[in-house]
Amino acid sequence: MLDQTEGYTTEDGRKIGGVVMEMKNITLRFGGVVAIQDISFDVREGEIRAIIGPNGAGKSSMLNVISGFYNPQEGEVWYKGEKRPQMKPYQVAQQGIARTFQNIALFEGMSVLDNVMTGRIRQMKSGLFSQSFWKGKAEREEVENRAFVERIIDFLEIQHIRKTPVGRLPYGLKKRVELARALAAEPSILLLDEPMAGMNVEEKEDMSRFVLDVNDEFGTTIVLIEHDMGVVMDLSDRVVVMDYGKKIGDGTPDEVRSNQAVIDAYLGVAHD
Amino acid sequence: MAQSSRGADGLSSIPALLQRNAAQFGAKPAYREKEYGIWQSWTWAEAEQEIEALALGLLTLGVNKGDFVAVIGRNRPYFYWSMVAAQSVGAIPVPVYQDSASDEMAYVLDHCGARFAIVEDQEQVDKIIDIQDELHLFEHIIYVDPRGLRKYDHHKLHQYSHVQEQGRAAREEFIGDLKARRDALDYDSTCVMLYTSGTTGKPKGVVLSNRNIIEASKSSSEFDHLTRNEEVLAYLPMAWVGDFIFSIGQAYWCGFCVNCPESPDTMQVDLREIGPTYYFAPPRVFETQLTNVMIRMEDASRMKQWLFHTFMEHARKVGPAILDGKSVSGWDRLKYRLGGLLVYGPLKDTLGFGRVRVGYTAGEAIGPEIFDFYRSLGINLKQLYGQTEASVFITLQPDGEVYSDTVGVAAPGVELKIAESGEVFYRGDGVFEEYYKNAESTASTKDAEGWVATGDAGFIDDKTGHLKIIDRAKDVGKMADGSLFAPKYVENKLKFYPNILEAVVFGNGREQCTAFINIDLNAVGNWAERNNIGYASYQELAGHPRVLETVKEHVEEVNRSLAEDPMLAHCQVHRFLVLHKELDADDGEMTRTRKVRRGVISEKFEELLAALYDGSTEKFTTTEVTYEDGRKGSISATLKIVDAEVVPVAQEKVAAE
Question: Which residue of B has its CA nearest to A154?
Answer without folding.
Answer: B36
